Each structure stands twice: as structure tokens, then as C-alpha cells.
Amino acid sequence: MGQALVSIIMGSDSDLSVMEQAASMLKELGVSYEMDIVSAHRTPEKMFDFAKKAHERGIEVIIAGAGGAAHLPGMVAAISPLPVIGVPVKSSNSIDGWDSVLSILQMPGGVPVATVALNGAKNAGILAAQIISVKDRSIREKIIAYKKGLQEAVNRKSEELKRC
Amino acid sequence: MGQALVSIIMGSDSDLSVMEQAASMLKELGVSYEMDIVSAHRTPEKMFDFAKKAHERGIEVIIAGAGGAAHLPGMVAAISPLPVIGVPVKSSNSIDGWDSVLSILQMPGGVPVATVALNGAKNAGILAAQIISVKDRSIREKIIAYKKGLQEAVNRKSEELKRC
Amino acid sequence: MGQALVSIIMGSDSDLSVMEQAASMLKELGVSYEMDIVSAHRTPEKMFDFAKKAHERGIEVIIAGAGGAAHLPGMVAAISPLPVIGVPVKSSNSIDGWDSVLSILQMPGGVPVATVALNGAKNAGILAAQIISVKDRSIREKIIAYKKGLQEAVNRKSEELKRC
Amino acid sequence: MGQALVSIIMGSDSDLSVMEQAASMLKELGVSYEMDIVSAHRTPEKMFDFAKKAHERGIEVIIAGAGGAAHLPGMVAAISPLPVIGVPVKSSNSIDGWDSVLSILQMPGGVPVATVALNGAKNAGILAAQIISVKDRSIREKIIAYKKGLQEAVNRKSEELKRC
Amino acid sequence: MGQALVSIIMGSDSDLSVMEQAASMLKELGVSYEMDIVSAHRTPEKMFDFAKKAHERGIEVIIAGAGGAAHLPGMVAAISPLPVIGVPVKSSNSIDGWDSVLSILQMPGGVPVATVALNGAKNAGILAAQIISVKDRSIREKIIAYKKGLQEAVNRKSEELKRC
Amino acid sequence: MGQALVSIIMGSDSDLSVMEQAASMLKELGVSYEMDIVSAHRTPEKMFDFAKKAHERGIEVIIAGAGGAAHLPGMVAAISPLPVIGVPVKSSNSIDGWDSVLSILQMPGGVPVATVALNGAKNAGILAAQIISVKDRSIREKIIAYKKGLQEAVNRKSEELKRC
Amino acid sequence: MGQALVSIIMGSDSDLSVMEQAASMLKELGVSYEMDIVSAHRTPEKMFDFAKKAHERGIEVIIAGAGGAAHLPGMVAAISPLPVIGVPVKSSNSIDGWDSVLSILQMPGGVPVATVALNGAKNAGILAAQIISVKDRSIREKIIAYKKGLQEAVNRKSEELKRC
Amino acid sequence: MGQALVSIIMGSDSDLSVMEQAASMLKELGVSYEMDIVSAHRTPEKMFDFAKKAHERGIEVIIAGAGGAAHLPGMVAAISPLPVIGVPVKSSNSIDGWDSVLSILQMPGGVPVATVALNGAKNAGILAAQIISVKDRSIREKIIAYKKGLQEAVNRKSEELKRC
User: Fold this and answer.
1) Across-strand partners of B87?
2) Chain G residues in contact with H115 (beta carbon < 8 A)
3) What strand order describes the sheet that includes D33-37?
4) CA C23, CA G97: separation in Å to the nearest integer?
5) Cα–Cα distance between C98 and E112 in angstroms, integer?
6) Which of B78, C26, D159, G119 has the least CB density, counted as fewest CB within 10 Å?
């Protein structure tokens, strides 16, 4: 796919089944990406290095997923000038997901994280594509087409329901 | 400032004191913006019309703030192909802000809203600038400088504390 | 059943197993209804059109069910002059149902949604019938009979318990 | 105003400042009403009597407001065949309003309460008028006009904001 | 067992598996009891009648269990002069039990309900026995013995753990 | 007043303004009581000693109030065979009272605490009197009279409201 | 292993599967420990005795796990001068773990409990070792090596992901 | 005071009024400390550098306070081998403190943070002293004396209450 524009990182390989949905969405929308495991808590230096250099490597958007006391999205946003999308993952010992959501969402003034719904990696992929579409209008056309597809799928379900 | 790239909308004029912080931040970072009151619940047709046409008018990012059962960001995201940043506002009859946060954050698959912290309009402004920086590298330089400024401010406070 | 008086809509076909309970209840109470899938987020124009015209088609009450950041009941209530009953559905990625409940219940002043319990579609059906009974006293009689039935069912269970 | 169609009751005179907003709204929309203090916990027999006879006196809708462990709306709904609108009031020792909301909203199957937002008595008034409009089309016209008024007020605020 | 001193009631037969634990505990502690289904919402008149007459029949303590918007304990406490113990039951559509807990616990000043833990019917049985022990010292002896039994059970488990 | 039958204890003198309401209520209902500060965390031995001996001194009911991680009611209930009423106090650093409520209410099987509402010391007083009334019928008469008084107060407020 | 430096206690044998993770971690880091069941609610005297004497027996750190209204960590911390680590356990009737967390964490000023995550016994073990490392530098070396191991495990997973 | 053994850091100077209580406590217990502002989000490199070197400078315990999405304690714990005490601070835009608490407490396995109560900096100071006491028995004596002081203060309050 050429130079990756979006970098998808996650704190643990247990987040993979959720975070892959961001990758699928980016593939569907024709946006090139890379994917890696980077843990703020277990590989802090790798995380630091990743965040410092991502924009120099041509990355335009970072998607970071993590669960529990989820510090990865916020720490990457602290270091990188790029827009960072945070995906709260409902991990096994999470308190119903509240910890993941609040530790990603409630960033202090100065350091935003664009937070999506709990386990909302699919939406993180779409949002990253929307951000890329600011400079690549062909992606915007794909987003418009994708939205039309959503609408048509609902209409088909509606027809089915009425037939019953 | 020329053509507005960011459109800041809010559900009620009572959200203005919070949402103005997005405008200030955009001004500081040199991103042109417009600001209006658009209510999903009281002016649904204006909202519809706004969301349908924003990208045709040259808008690249929408920032939408609302409180309580906050439907404005999600509805605009449903209609517009642009990236939408949602600002949960802690309004007077809100249940501690939980209603604003959850009704903006928990969007279904297919329709993302980039949610920031409760009353986090300042971060919405920075995030919008980060998105614009995807096509305008001069904005990225300003974001890097802004981050340096945050760092220096902390260092000054640190020096003051040590002097005491 | 002739002209539908109640329109049951839901945001997704995954809400159907819950929302069918509203239909069953209306059938039991002899109130005519229609049922469709209308998504605020994926088919916003259909939603708009539906809400604008429902009262012109003879609909008297709308029951709208949705989960997560559930905007369907509130948006329909924003557009239609009819009484709107909202059913918070506990969908798969919901945060324990809190998101559905709060984004339906906490409507701003001016735009009410008559909210029932989480997954409370059965009660939405009864409430719609109670509203119709304002002009059709035969429905009120059925509601009074239904309540008597509830009472008798409890009394039978009470007898069984005492026999053990 | 002639025969009251809506009965507004509340558990305590401390709920009056909230519940008066239902009365104002009904007055504005031309719906006749009565107002009384009826406590499920302190005057259970009066409550019982009220709920048993309201529909025989010509009442069509009951609005019941209460705070804390708020049993008034649900108990009246258990006894009366009329539609009951519940207003959760944020009373002084309430746990942030959660107790009022949950003890009104989460009614079991068979006994609905049409719940509005915390302290949402204004919306209870509008909802009651919407219910009455099922048999009195002049009220529906007033609701349509009221919605137009909401829209115009937002538009005026929007103009003011742009002038600044 | 002679005259029942404790009356165990519950809102639905679905609460029986929880509420039986109160009965077992009372049996173990030698306190006579009766058990019935009494629903505040579906059999309000039976509930009223029950609460009005319980103390005249020789009942000394009432244990009432219910789930969701749980009004049974509070309503019985409103009508009866007896001490009422409330058991919040985590029913199927409950929001994680919070609704049951708050609608039983947060009673207004003047009408107490002695609330025990979520699904804590066993403790309700012990508490009822403790109340009866105010006039029957033989029950107090049994409670002291029961506590000794708890202690010995822990000590046995402790021995087992150390042997491993 | 002779031998105290009820002992009111609290974890800190900052709980006094709340806990005094239990004392007032007992005075009004003619039940003798004593009051002291006993901290589970700061005076564990005094607490232990208190709990061990209360029933030997003729105390029949213990009311214990505490805030935050409130261990006093549960620890006293662990040691004493008497019925223990717990009053969750909303202290200054409490998280909205949730900590006080949950750490008093959620006792494990075997060790009940009769929990009343947040800051509900008044109800703790009434509940203690209801427990004493099991052996002293004159107290029950006072409770019946007290309930009548509550009813009359509501009726007076109702009259006032109607006069306006 | 010689004299135990860390004492792991838990309120019930049902906490054992969680609390064993603290033991495994201490074994891995070469810190000697003991393990026992001590219930604040069912064996208050044993708990008292344990807490009073632990430091005299050479114990340096106490790890205490409990669920629901979890009083064990706080009560031990009230009595012992040693640092106490609290592990909130998500027990069967817990309200999603909130009760365990809040009743361990929210200790009043003067009596700290070092609280770890819900079911976080593994971290309790590491924390205890970190505390012991204050006087035993060989343990610190093991902790540094353990952290390196965490990092290497993530790097291996990262390599695997890239190979796919 | 000689070589600092405890380092108190905080994310912002707005946390100072809370965090000073840790310093006061350490002073009272005779433990040397240093204090600085180190922000994970605004000075990530300083934070990194601080955490990497603290143990080499002779620091034995780190106390870190932060509010909102509070990443400072967890990130320092990720990098440093020292025991880290986290103080959740209830900052101005915090959602009632839940965000601070959960983002500090819910650390993943491998990286503990010893969390104290919301705004519990005083207890963080005591806990740090308890940890230092593992190698310095004179500090343990001071802690024992401090606990005695707490007890005496309660006893004095108890005497005062009885005199009234």
C-alpha cells in the first residue's frame, strides 16, 4: 500500500481482536496503515521513541487502543504533534470499561485525544480516514460512498422486516 | 481570516462560555473558523442543512458542543462526511456530566464522533488544528511550538515551587 | 387492523427482539400499529421524513427504541408534534445500558421523550395504549382488564407458593 | 379553566419549585390542570384514593414528581389506568439524582411510567399536552406553534452571536 | 412453628430463589415465619391490606424483597408501624442492581427501610432474628452460637490452607 | 431517661450534625439512648471493647454512622450480637457518598447491617424505636402516632397549596 | 524460605484464586511470605490479634484481599504500624466491584491502605517486593530484571504481529 | 534534612494545596523529602528523566499526584523500579473524581501503583513513611506514636461530647 499514513498501536496483543477492526476499515477505505504493539507501561522507551518520530516518518494520524488505566493514547498525544485517536478497550479486569473510557477521554487542557466509543476501533478507522480526507479528496468520496452503503443496508433490513 | 476551515457549533447559547475556548485556541494556532448556534432538538432543519452543506462550503472540520442528551455532534456526524469533534458540556440539569459524555461518545459503528473531555473545548480547538495540519504544515509547526510553550510554563512553575 | 395509530421504529434490526414486545402488547390491547427500522445515524433523511409526516398519516403515538448513544427517540421528538415513547435498548457494546438510558432520558426543556425502563418495550406498548385510550374508551377498558389479569396471575403464584 | 384534564401531584412541598414548571407549560398550551401534594410514603391512603378515582373524575393524564426513593409515580401507575408521567426530582439528600431517576424509570413489565429528565417538569407539561392532543387537535396546533417558537428563539440567539 | 413472627414477602416469584435464603436462616435460628408473594405494582390492594394488618396478626418484623424500581419495601414501611427489612434483588432487567439498591435504600425522612446488601436475603433473616431477640433472649443465644460457627468455619479453612 | 436502650456511635465528631438527628428522633419517641465517638480506624480497641460489651450493658440496638470507607457499622456488627443500624454519612472527601453507602451496605452473608439512606440518621432513630417496640408496645403506639403526624403535616401543606 | 517478610491474608477462601497471584509473584521475586485466611467480619479477634503482632513477628508488609464491603485491609491498617496493601476482590454478589474498590480505597486521613486494581493481587506482590527492596537491594535488582522481562515479552509479541 | 528519601511530584501547580499535605506529614514523621512539578502530558521528557534516575539519586519512594486522566503515577511506575504512591486529585473539570481514581488505580498486571483515597495526600505521606520504616526502625516508632496520637484525639472528642 506504499507509505503508511495511519499507525495503529495497542498496549497488548489481547487488544488485537478489537483493534483489527480499525485496520479492516482503513483497508476498505483505501488508506495505508501499519500496526504494532507498543505498551506505555511495559515498553515506555519504545512508546516514547515511536511518538517522537511518527510524524517524521510520514505518519499523519495515530490510532492507539488500550484498556484499564489506559495511558497509551494520552502519552502518545503528549509527545507527538499528530492527531491521536484513542480506543478504550474493555479488557478482562476492567471495571465495566469505565476505567478505559475515563483514562483516555479526560485529558487535561493542551493535550487532546480524539476518543471513540468503548471497543469502537471500527469508528477509529473511519475517523482516521476522515482526517486523511482533509488532504486527499478521493478518500472523502469513499467516505460518502460508505455512508450511502450504511443507508442502503438499513433500507434492505427495513424491506425484509416489512415482508415478514 | 479568509475562508473558515473549522465550524464551531453549539446546541444553546448557554454553551458559549465553554465553546469560546475552542475559538480562542484556533485563533492562537492561526486556523480560520466560524461559530454558530445550531440546535439538533430545536432547529433540526437548520442542523440538517448545516451538516449537509458544510463540506461544500470549504469547511474541513466541525466542532460541536452540547449538554444533557447531547445529540448534536452525533447527528451532524451522521449527515456530514467531515470529521466531527464532540464537546460534552456539563449543563445545569445534567447528571454530573455523564449524560453529555455518554450520548456523544458511545456512537454506533459507522458514525464516529471524536470526543474530548467534559467541557474540553480548548482541546477540541487543538485537535481541529492538528487535523488541518495534515494538509497545512505551517499549522503543525505552530502545534509543535505550542507544546514547547506548555513545557516551558511547567518548568517556570517548577522553578517557582523550588524557590519557595 | 386498519389505520395504524402507533408507529414502532428502531435504530437497528438487532433491536427487534426487544421491540417486538411493544408490538405484542399493542396487539393484545387491540391497538393498530406499524413497525419499521429507521436509523437516526445511518438513514437520517428517512428519519427526518418519517418524523415530519407521521402525524399527517394518522399516527398518534411513536415508540422509538435504540441503544448506545441513542439519538432516534430524541430526534424524532424534535421534529414531530406527536408524543414519543423512548425505549433504551441494552445493545452489545453499551456500557451496561447507561449510555442508552441517559441519551434518551435527559432531553432538554422543550422536547420531551417519554422514557421507559431499559429494554422496557412491553411497557412502551402499554403506555402507547394508555395514550390512545384518551380518545378511545374501549382501550381503557382493556387496560383495566389487563391490570386485573396481572393481579390474578400474582394471586395464582401466591396460592402455589403457599401450597408448597 | 373548567374540568381539569391533567393532575399534577408531588411527594413534598419541597418539590414545588420544580413541579410548577409543568403547570406553567400546561397553562401556556391551554390545557386545564389541578395541582396537589400527595405522598406515597406519608399519605399512602390519600395516594391510593387519588389513584383509584382520578380517571373517574375526568382526569386524562397524571404528572407525578418525587425525589430520592421516589415511589409516587410508580405506585399511582400501579393503581390508575391513566398514563402517568414521572418527574425525578433532585432532592437535597439524593445521591446526585440517580436514586430519583432509577426508582421512577425502572418499572417492571406491566406498569409503565413515562419518565422525563431529572427535574424535567417542563417537559412533563409538554408531554401531557401531547397526550391530550390525541383527542383535541387544537392542542396539537399549539404544540406545533410552540416548537416553531423554540426554533425562532434559537435563530434570534444565532443572529446575536453573529453580530458580536 | 406456631404464630409467625416474621413475614417474608417478595414482589415476584422470580425473587424466590433469593428470598428463600431468609427463610432458611430464620429456620436455622428458630424463628417462626410465613412467606408470600405480594406485589406493590400488580397487587397494590393486597399489599395495602397486608401492610395495614400485619402487626395486628402478631407479625413483629417484615422482610420485603424486590428488584428494579423496587417499591414494595418502602410502601410497606409507609403503611405498617413494624420494622421493615428491604432486600434489593438483582433482577434480569436491572441496571446491575443499582436500581434495586437505590429505590429501597434512599427512603425519605420519616419512613425507614432497613436495607441489606444486593441479594442479601440471608442477612435479612439474621437481622430479623436479631430484632426478635430484643424480646426473646433464647434467640440471642442462637445468634451468638451462629457467630461462633462462622468463626470456626473460617478457622477450619485456615487450617486447610496451611496444610496445602 | 434511665438505662440507655440504644447506643448511637459515630466515627468522627464531624459526623455529629448528621447523627444528632437520630438522637432527636429517639427523644421524640421516648426511647432512652447514649451517644459517643468510637472510631474503627483510630480507636480500634475502644471499638472492639464497645461492641463486645454493649449487649451486656443492656443496650438493645446500636446505631453507627460513618463516612468514606466506613467500617464502623460493619465491624461492630461483626463483634456484637445486637442489631446494628448503619448510617452512611456524606463526608467531605467522599466520592458523592457512594463510598459510604457501599462500604456499609454490601456486608457479606452472616453479618448484616441495617443500612438507611445517605445521611439518614433520622430514619435510623425511627428504625431503632421500631425495633425496641417489639418488646415495648407503648413505643409502637408512639410510632403509629408519629406516622399520623407525618400524614397531617402533608395534608396541611396540601391545603396551603390549594389556597394559593 | 526462612522468616516470612510479607503476610498475605484474605477474608475468605473464595478469594484464594485471586490472592495466590500475589504469592506467585513474591516467589518469583525471591521474597519470603506466609498466607492465611483472616476474616474481619467472621474472625474479628483473630484479625485483631494478627494485626497487633505482625510487626513483632518480623513481618514487614501485609497484603490483604477482600470483596464486597471489604473491611479487612482498612482494619488491619488501623491496628498495625506496617504498610498494608489492599486488593479489592470482585466477589460474586459484589456490585461490579465498586463496593470492594471504594471500601478499601477511601480510607480516612491517618490510616492509609495502598490499594491496587480490582483483582490486582499480582501487582500487590510486586509492590510488596518493591517495599522490601528499600532495605534489600538484591530485590531491587530482581524488580529491574522483571521489568526488562515485561519489555522483552512485548517486543516478542510485536515481532510476531509484524510477521503475520 | 539531608538526602531526600521521598520525592513528591505533581502534574500541575493546581495540585499543590492537596499535595502539600503529603509533605507536612513526612515532616511530622521525620522523613526527608523533595517536591517538584512534573507533568506526564506537558513535560514528558522531564518525567521520563525523573523516573529513570530517581532511584540512582537515593530516592526510595515516589509520591505522584494528578487529576483527570491522571497518567503521571502510572507512567513513573512504568519506568522506575521504586514503589510509587498515587494520589488521585479531584481537579476542576474532573467527573466527580472518578477519572482520577480509575486512571491511577486500574494499572495492568506488572506495574503497580499504591493508590490512596481521592485527595488523600496526607495518607500518601504516612504510607511513604511506613515504607521507609522497613529499613529505619526509628520511623516505625514515630508511626506508632502517631497512631497513639490519633487515638487520643478521638478520646478527647469523646470526652467533650459526653460533657455536653
Assistant:
1) B65
2) 105, 114-116
3) C33-37, C6-10, C61-67, C84-89, C114-115, D114-115, D84-89, D61-67, D6-10, D33-37
4) 37
5) 28
6) D159
Which among G42, G48, G75 has CB closest to F71?
Answer: G75
DSSP H helical ranges for chain A:
16-28, 44-53, 72-79, 98-105, 121-132, 137-163
Going residue by residue through chain C, which has 164 residues, state the pLDDT in tens, using 9 for 90 and above. Answer: 579 999 999 999 999 999 999 999 999 999 999 999 999 999 999 999 999 999 999 999 999 999 999 999 999 999 999 999 999 999 888 899 999 999 999 999 999 999 999 999 999 999 999 999 999 999 999 999 999 999 999 999 999 999 87
**Closest partner CB to A151 (pick from C16, C43, C93):** C43
CA dihedral sign of residues D138, D144, D146, D148? negative
Cα distance between residue D76 and residue G152, in whole Å? 64
What is the enclosing helix (H) or strand (E) of B84? strand B84-89
CA distance F158 to chain E (A): 18
Pairing of strands B84-89, B61-67: parallel
Report the top-level CATH class of F6-163: alpha beta
Instruction: Nearest chain A residue to C12 by CA: give it.
Output: A154
Give the residue on E whose Cα is nearest the Cα of G36. E158
Reading the block at residue F83, the C-alpha cell is 442489631
Q: A11: closest CA among H75, H98, H85, B105?
A: H75
- pLDDT tens track for E108-125: 999 999 999 999 999 999
Residue A2 has pLDDT above 80, yes or no: no
Q: Which of D137, D94, D149, D156 is nearest to D119 (CA)?
A: D94
Question: Which residues in chain E have Cβ-Cβ distances shorter than 8 Å to C119?
Answer: 93
**Chain H residues within an 8 Å CB radius of B159:** none
Q: Pull the grid cell for residue B76.
A: 451532524
Q: Which long-range contacts (CB under 8 A, 24 or more apart) does A28-31 make?
A: A28/A146, A29/A125, A29/A126, A29/A129, A29/A139, A29/A142, A29/A143, A29/A146, A30/A138, A30/A139, A30/A142, A31/A5, A31/A6, A31/A125, A31/A128, A31/A129, A31/A132, A31/A139
Residue H112 grid cell: 503497580
Which of G37, G46, G93 lies at the smallest CB-CB distance from E118?
G93
Does B44 sit within 8 Å of C78, measured CB to CB?
A: yes
How many angstroms separate the CA of residue F97 from the nearest CA in chain H? 11
Contact yes or no for H157 and F38 at CB 8 A: no
- Nearest by CB to residue D151, choosing from B16, B35, B42, is B42
Does the predicted interface ipTM exceed a cut of 0.95?
A: yes
For chain G, the 3-state helix, strand and coil shares in percent, each to the nearest 5, are 50, 15, 35
Q: Do A42 and G120 touch (CB under 8 A)?
A: no
> Average pLDDT of chain F?
96
Nearest to D102 among E48, E79, E98 (CB): E98
What whole-number percentage of chain H has pLDDT above 90?
A: 94
> For chain F, where are the E strands, in sequence order?
6-10, 33-37, 61-67, 84-89, 114-115
CA distance A164 to chain B (A): 26
Q: What are phi and psi of E115, to 5 degrees?
A: -90, 140
CA distances from G146 to A43, C26, G18 (A): 12, 64, 21
Distance CA C44, CA C38 (A): 8
Confirm if D8 and D122 have CB atoms less than 8 A apart. Answer: no
Nearest to C7 by CA among C66, C84, C78: C84
Chain E hits for D104, CB-CB cut-off 8 Å, are 69
B37-74 per-position pLDDT tens digit: 999 999 999 999 999 999 999 999 999 999 999 999 99
Q: Which of D23, D61, D15 is nearest to D39 (CA)?
A: D15
Stated pTM of the model:
0.97
Chains A and D touch (3+ CB pairs under 8 A): no
Q: Tens digits of per-residue pLDDT, H65-108?
A: 999 999 999 999 999 999 999 999 998 888 999 999 999 999 99
